[in-house]
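[SOLVED] Need 3D model of a two-part complex

Original post:
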Amino acid sequence: MWAYTVRRLLYAVPILLGVSMLVFALIHLAPGDVVDLLVPPEVPREIADSLRHRFALDQPLHIQYLAWLGRLLVGDLGISFFTNRPVSDELFGALGNTLVLAVPAALLGFGLGTLLGALAAFNRGTGLDKLFSATAITGVSLPHYWVGIVLVAVFAVVLNALPAQGMGPAGIPTSWEQIQHLILPVVTLSLIPMGVVSRLVRANVLEILSQEFVGALDAKGLLRRRVLYHVMKNAAPSTLALMGLQLGYLLAGSILIETVFNWPGSGGLMNLAIFRRDIPVLSATILVLATIFVAINILVDVLQALIDPRMRR
Amino acid sequence: MTEVPALTITEPSQATRRAQQGKGYWQRVWERLQRDKVTLAMAAILALLLVMVVFPAWFTVHDPYQASVLHRLKPVGYPGHWLGTDEVGRDLWSRMVYGGRLSLVAGVLPVFLAFLIGGFLGILAGYAGGLINTVIMRLVDVLYAFPSILLAIAITGILGSGLKNTILALTIAFVPPLVRISEAVTAQARHLDFVEAARASGAGIFRILYYHILNNVLGPILVYATSLISVGIILAAGLSFLGLGVTPPNPEWGLMLNNLRQALWVDPVVAALPGVMIFITSMCFNLLSDGLRQAMDVRL
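Solution:
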């Protein structure tokens, strides 16, 4: 088990190197370089070139990449062009705010999705199955940013019951005011994971129910809830894999929802960085989100291997 | 009335039975599809949508770019503009119909391109194995480290907005999952007996790929690709919604949602309307893909 975990962690190294190369390449694919962005065009060429020399931008690309990578490895994510503050200061505060949204949305979406999917499968062909399956496919078909707009229209504009924007006082939500701000964005974000998870759980449970061992468990007189436990345990590995992917999508995809609700999270930060052409903030956000995604996937692989020993190849 | 001798089996019926038994796979898929009313209805709605975006002038009276200071943000049911007008007085129905052009192109074309590229790379990796497989699959692993929406936003955010970059970004975002699926089904098909037999009988690699592998893997890859179309529609409109996709004043559903956001407090119904089109389209594609998967008996 430990060997598997270590192997899985080691495998992340080349992946993350590839990720850093891709982000670096993207930055250098962008039209113009940093100096073009920072210095007005009327500044003489010599001054611009001396700046390029000072920031080592006249070095060959692979040297620049290695220098950049070296700074990343010691935790230096650069300085924002716009606010002149270290990127890490802004980024980690924003990431915390995104987690405040994504964690409850994941819990709600995964919980509801598993419940609806399993209930639909155990009641196959009934009205309940049809209702839950329809709910699930609606969940995956809805453009969630539009759902956010509709929820704001209904609950903020028409009913005036919930706040339309922002997160209220910062920090871990404990007060009613903070929770009020959470309700609409969390419900909106949970829709897609709910639909996706519920569809997968239904398909998986149906497949497992058709296998012979379930009949054998029933035949030996096991209690129905014990049989249910075995079915769900068999459905768990692939469901977990999907949940890992969905958690990553929640963190990255919250950019749309954060835009709708003016939520000060990593998505909002990325959006700002794009429009200010603040390349250090943008590249750092992309890099950190991708790293988190890789970490989640490793965690999921290890969890899968814990549940299903066959995975520890 | 002439009596038919009981034991005579007439030639036509025998031929029919033989034909029924020997029916091809695609013919059976088509028959199953014809019995699936939901899938047929979805196909009909999508066909109607296609006609609407190809010939928008048949369905609208107003120019989608014609603004009017006097008729801004009129409600649904306003005389002359049955769905109201947007924030600069353009007819909302016209813009929704014309907007389908860019939304559909930006949502469907990347999936198609990724289907070609990802399918090719995946089948190559799955059949060739060895070094080629390692190189292709490790490169895909790197792309897979990005959630698809993050990759799309990163590419359009850095390269700039516009239809071309949207299509490029979404294509790159959809290639990795298609390579993985294609590689998996091809690696399975490679060891099937008839493929081994073809190889043993001296068939060339392209002959085997074309006649034996492609026939067996195209179905699953196609079904998976169709399930991505709805994601493509939602993401393409989402990029425009963020201001990273189609540029104004072009009509596009996501961009319309973005522009109308400020009007939410004036007329929430009008402000939310363009989203209905995104929802209907992605729902239709999802149900169509489900129907196709069932008819083709594909498990992914």
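Edit: DSSP finds twelve helices and no strands in chain A.
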